[in-house]
Structures are given as C-alpha cells and as structure tokens.
Design goal:
By secondary structure, the chain is α+β, with helices and mostly antiparallel strands. The protein has one domain (4-155): 3-Layer(aba) Sandwich (Aminopeptidase), CATH 3.40.630.30. The chain is built from 7 helices and 7 strands, in the order E-H-H-E-E-E-H-E-H-E-H-E-H-H. The two termini are 25 Å apart. The model is unreliable at 162-187 (pLDDT under 50).
Length: 187
C-alpha cells in the first residue's frame, strides 16, 4: 500500500481540485470555487495523494495580520475516515506557524472533527470582516449554520530554520517557504 503524501498544489491539480471541492459544494458542504478563484489561491493549497492519486485538499488563507483560515478542506468520499483530513489540517496548522500566524480559524459544520484536533469554539462575531467579504457568495449567508473554531498556531523551536531566518532579518527566506514556492512553480 502506498504512503499518504502531502504536497503543495500544482497547476496540473486544478481540474481534480475543482471536481473535489465543487462536488462538496453541490451538497452545500463547501463554498463553490471557480477555476479563476482556485488558480488565484493555488499557493494556499496542499493536496494529499497516495500512489499518485489525489485524495484530498485543504487551503490556508491569510485573513489578516496574524490570522489564517483553514478552507476548502475536502477528502474523496471513498477515503473519508482514514486520517486524510486530519493529516491535511495538522500540516496546515504547522504551516500557519511557519507563516507566523498567531491563530488559525475554521468555520465549519464538522465541529467535533476540529475539536478533536485541538480547535476551540469561539464567537463568530470576532471575524465580522471575514464574514462580510468571503461569505457574501455563500447561498447560506443569511442563515449560516457554521461554527467558528480557533487554535493558536505553533511557534517555532528556538533552533529551527525559521527561528534562525527570523533572527537574520526580513530579507532572509525560510527554506520551507522557498521550497514550497519552488515545488509549486515546478507544477
């Protein structure tokens, strides 16, 4: 059996990502994505694959200074319940720390899933700016039933590459971010 692999999304992933995300959108479980909007946010996406097959995806979008949001989390229906979503969220949360976010937000109907990963309930009204902009396109905007959960993003260890790059100053790129961008460019 092949090992689950998480990697940055590539241009060649656009069509399968649209099919996966919009399949959930048709069931009113996620917001629909256009090809244009997905391409514009492709650097925010990670994909989970096994044996070259795309099994799931998730994105980490910046909402403002210090705040990232887990978005478009989707796992192929035949692969749910096997840890793919958990692996994606864990990596997205770690990435939030690497991107120096203080908090990670999830707006979801799957409250117990996110709570099991360490997210805690919070007041949706704390994110009014996000709700006014991103949620306008949602057909459930007026009667939204999603719950807001947050967790603190992890801080880097003192001897980590990110901590050394931060100490060196703003002109120094952290290797993982540079590696992520390079992998996306190879797409």
């Amino acid at each position: 059996m092949a090992e689950l692999r998480l990697r940055p999304a590539r241009e060649s992933d656009v069509a399968p990502l649209l099919a996966l995300i919009n399949g959930y959108a048709e069931r009113r479980m996620l917001l629909q994505r256009s090809e244009e909007s997905l391409r514009a946010r492709l650097p925010d996406f990670l994909v989970a694959e096994e044996g070259g097959e795309l099994l799931g995806c998730g994105a980490l979008s910046e909402l403002g200074p210090g705040l990232g949001e887990v978005r478009s989390l989707a796992v192929r229906v035949d692969r749910t319940g096997r840890g793919v979503g958990r692996a994606l969220v864990a990596r997205l949360v770690a990435w939030a720390g690497e991107r120096e976010f203080a908090q990670v937000l999830a707006l979801t109907r799957r409250v117990s899933f996110f709570q099991a990963l360490g997210f805690e309930l919070t007041d949706r009204r704390l994110f009014e700016d996000k709700l006014r902009t991103d949620c306008q396109a949602c057909p459930l905007n007026v009667c939204c039933d999603e719950t807001a959960l947050v967790m603190p993003a992890p801080r880097p260890a003192a001897g980590s590459a990110r901590a050394r790059a931060n100490a060196a100053g703003p002109g120094v790129a952290w290797a993982s971010q540079a590696g992520l961008r390079a992998a996306q460019a190879r797409g």
